[in-house]
Design a protein that fits this description.
The protein is an alpha/beta fold and 381 residues long. 38% of the residues lie in helices and 17% in strands. It has helices at 15-18, 34-48, 79-88, 99-102, 107-120, 145-159, 178-191, 193-199, 214-224, 245-252, 287-297, 332-344, 359-378; strands at 2-5, 22-25, 65-68, 93-96, 123-130, 163-167, 202-206, 229-234, 256-260, 263-269, 272-278, 303-305, 314-316. Helix 3 runs parallel beside helix 5 (107-120), helix 7 (178-191) runs parallel beside helix 9 (214-224) and helix 9 packs parallel to helix 10 (245-252). It is globular, with a radius of gyration of 25 Å. The relative contact order is 0.10.
Length: 381
């Protein structure tokens, strides 16, 4: 008879537990007896607790890292230059959030963009602006909302984008009642449902520029139909709607199709609160926890940076009763979570710009710093 001592790697086992993982082996083969091994290993797991043992069979989460090309709009690059930049930085998803970044919707141009992306092994996502015909952002000169969305569906088929990112509008649309605009957007999306289903394309509605809080966007998705409409989750825009970005993620995670990830700083002021967008890792909204939760709750969805660094903070003077005209339906418990973030935060102001650098150079530096921070953090997950 021989004795085989098996100690679990990584985990330090107490001596009395280690004794239980002593396996009696067959005297002829020297191999552990299967029944004894399972019994001893099970006893050790029970004694230690399941969380104490390493889970060798559990794969690390697959993270599709991307960049929204709005982050680089000052560079005035062609779509091919944008793709080359992405390849240089090991970006796996290029998110052309607006038509201008694609160059045009001409089929030949789109095929060339797709071909170059294939060469670089990059996934593509495309987008547009407002599809709400009553929004102040809607561009009537480009045709009806249905016509504009229809062109984007055809473009998505050519470049093999699974989504068309779109928006309702901006904070300006809250002044005359956001619910009406939500209903108008739902009408457009319902009218396009069959075309979306036939093309196997979904519309990803962004929480954009202060237009909707999470519960409002959830209502839009549920009303339009989650089978063909989902969310482009922006982590920076919730602070423009006096909302905790973590609450936004919790509410909308089941509907997420893609993302715009951006860090933010929040703090209290005598009149209310101040917020500004920062480089990744330089805010105080809890970006590390946000990314962990996003990767867990939205598996396989792109983690795409939309880097915007605010010069001056945006002020929310919520102590003024008139401020609440745009937020009459905001529950107190939701607003309290926004306040909790402000209470924990300290002012984070942008350093004075280097006069020797252009706006485009500063933007590029912000994007590259944010990519570096995010890739290093994701590598640890």
């Amino acid at each position: 008879m021989a004795v085989l001592l098996v100690a679990a790697p990584i985990v330090s086992l107490p001596f009395k537990i280690l004794r239980q993982v002593v396996i009696m082996t067959d005297s002829h083969t020297g191999l552990p007896d299967r029944r004894s091994f399972i019994k001893a290993a099970g006893a050790a797991a029970v004694a230690l607790g399941a969380d104490a043992l390493p889970s060798f069979g559990q794969a690390a989460p697959v993270v599709r890292f991307g960049v929204d090309m709005y982050s680089l709009n000052q560079q005035k690059w062609t779509p091919f230059q944008q793709l080359d930049f992405a390849a240089k930085w090991n970006v796996k998803v290029v998110h052309f959030s607006e038509i201008g970044f694609l160059g045009s919707l001409e089929p030949d141009n789109l095929r060339r963009v797709r071909a170059r992306a294939d060469e670089l092994k990059i996934d593509l996502e495309i987008g547009m602006r407002s599809i709400c015909p009553t929004s102040k952002m809607f561009d009537k000169a480009q045709g009806t909302a249905e016509d504009q969305l229809g062109r984007m569906i055809e473009a998505a088929k050519i470049v093999r984008s699974p989504i068309v990112r779109a928006v309702l509008g901006s904070v300006a649309d809250r002044a005359d009642g956001i619910d009406t605009h939500i209903d108008d957007t739902v009408t457009v999306l319902k009218s396009m449902r069959s075309r979306l289903v036939d093309a196997n394309v979904k519309v990803a509605i962004e929480n954009h520029a202060g237009d909707m809080q999470a519960r409002e966007l959830k209502r839009l998705i549920e009303s339009a139909g989650p089978d063909c409409v989902g969310v482009c989750l922006d982590s920076g825009n919730p602070v423009w709607t006096i909302e905790d970005p973590h609450l936004t993620l919790e509410t909308l995670a089941p509907y997420v199709l893609t993302s715009h990830i951006r860090d933010s700083a929040l703090w209290n002021t005598p009149q209310g609160a101040a917020v500004r967008w920062t480089r990744m890792g330089e805010g105080n909204m809890g970006m590390e926890d946000y990314l962990r939760t996003y990767v867990q709750k939205c598996p396989g969805k792109a983690v795409s940076l939309e880097v915007i660094v605010s010069g001056q903070p945006r002020m929310f003077n919520y102590r003024d009763p008139k401020f609440w005209d745009n937020y009459r339906n905001t529950p107190a418990w939701e607003f309290s979570r926004f306040l909790a973030l402000c209470d924990k935060g300290q002012p984070i102001l942008e350093p004075p710009p280097d006069p020797a650098k252009s706006q485009a150079e500063r933007q590029l530096a912000n994007v590259e710093a944010s990519i570096t921070w995010t890739q290093a953090f994701l590598a640890k997950l």
